[in-house]
Write a structure and sequence with these properties.
about 15% strand, six-stranded mixed β-sheet, alpha+beta, 9 helices, 9 strands
Length: about 280
C-alpha cells in the first residue's frame, strides 16, 4: 500500500472504532465484484440490495461488506482495494443513521425550510443532513434529494457540524408519501417545447420576447449557484409561458445557449428543463 493511501485506512479504522461500518470506494463506486461473486455466483445480489449467504472476504458487496472489524479492514485480502481507493464509504443504516443527500442548492434551500436542523456535512454540490435513526433508503424522493440509510452507502466527507437530531417523521414521510419524479429524458441536443393549449394571456409578442430576454440576463448575471439559477429561470419561464403554446424551439435554444455560456452542459440544461416541466405538469 502506498503512503498516500495510508490515511484512508487510518480514517476507516477510526470510524470503525466509533462503530461506523466502513469499506473502500473508488470514486463513488465500490470495488468490482471478484470472480467468486461475479454474476451472483455467491448467492447474493448487492446491486439489487439483496444480501445472500456469501462469505467472501473481499469488500465487493458495497454496503453489505461494510465492517467495524479492524482485522478485516487491515487484512491482506483488502490491501489491494485500499491501494486503489480514493475515499471511504460507510453504511449509515448499519450505524443506526439516516443521511438526507441534498444534491444541489435548490434541495438545500428546501431542507432548510422543511426539515429540523441536524448535523450537516458539505458535499461537492450540496449537503448531507445526518439524523439519528435508521429507515428505508430511497432515491429521488424529491428533486435532488436521496435518502441513504438501510441497504445503502454514503461517502465519508468529514464529521460535519451541528448537533445530530433524531430522525423526524418528516423524513420518513418522504419515502412513504412523496412520489419520486420520473428520471428526466436526457436529450441534450433537442428538447421540445410544451404543446400548450391554454388561453394565451399575452397582449403582444413583445411580452414574450421581453420575458425571454430577462431570463437570458438573469442567467448571465449568476455569480454562483448557476445550476440552481438555471433551474429557477426555466421554472419561471414555463410557469408564465408553458401552458399556452407560445414557447418555440428557438426560445428554448436561447435559454440553453445562455446557460451554456455560464458553464452548464447540454445534459444539465436538459435535466433542469425536464424537472421544471415535470414539476409544473405542463
Amino acid at each position: 500500500m502506498t503512503h498516500d493511501r495510508l490515511p484512508l485506512l487510518q480514517v476507516a479504522l477510526d470510524l470503525a472504532h466509533r462503530r461506523l461500518p466502513v469499506f473502500p470506494l473508488r470514486g463513488k463506486r465500490p470495488p468490482a465484484n471478484c470472480s467468486a461473486c461475479r454474476d451472483t455466483a455467491c448467492g447474493g445480489r448487492p446491486h439489487m440490495r439483496v444480501p445472500g449467504p456469501c462469505r467472501c472476504p473481499l469488500p465487493c458487496h458495497a454496503w453489505a461488506a461494510a465492517t467495524t472489524d479492524p482485522g478485516i479492514l487491515t487484512s491482506p485480502a483488502w490491501a489491494a482495494d485500499w491501494h486503489h481507493a480514493t475515499t471511504v464509504a460507510y453504511h449509515p443504516g448499519g450505524a443506526g443513521l439516516t443521511v438526507v443527500d441534498l444534491d444541489d442548492p435548490v434541495a438545500v434551500a428546501w431542507a432548510r425550510e422543511a426539515l429540523p436542523a441536524t448535523r450537516t456535512v458539505s458535499t461537492t454540490r450540496g449537503e448531507h443532513w445526518i439524523y439519528s435513526g435508521g429507515m428505508q433508503s430511497a432515491n429521488r424522493v424529491r428533486p435532488g434529494v436521496d435518502i441513504k440509510s438501510l441497504m445503502a452507502y454514503a461517502r465519508w466527507l468529514g464529521p460535519g457540524t451541528g448537533a445530530m437530531a433524531p430522525l423526524p417523521d418528516t423524513v420518513r414521510a418522504l419515502v412513504v408519501r412523496e412520489t419520486p419524479l420520473p428520471a428526466p429524458v436526457r436529450r441534450p441536443a433537442a428538447v421540445s417545447a410544451p404543446g400548450g393549449g391554454g388561453t394565451c394571456p399575452h397582449r403582444t409578442p413583445a411580452y414574450l420576447e421581453r420575458g425571454i430576454t430577462m431570463a437570458e440576463q438573469r442567467i448571465a448575471g449568476a455569480r454562483n449557484a448557476v445550476h440552481a439559477t438555471v433551474y429557477s429561470v426555466f421554472l419561471a419561464v414555463l410557469s408564465a409561458h408553458g401552458r399556452c403554446g407560445c414557447l418555440t424551439e428557438a426560445h428554448i435554444e436561447r435559454l440553453f445557449t445562455a446557460a451554456g455560456a455560464k458553464g452548464e452542459s447540454p445534459r444539465h440544461c436538459a435535466d433542469a428543463w425536464a424537472n421544471a416541466v415535470a414539476r409544473l405538469g405542463v
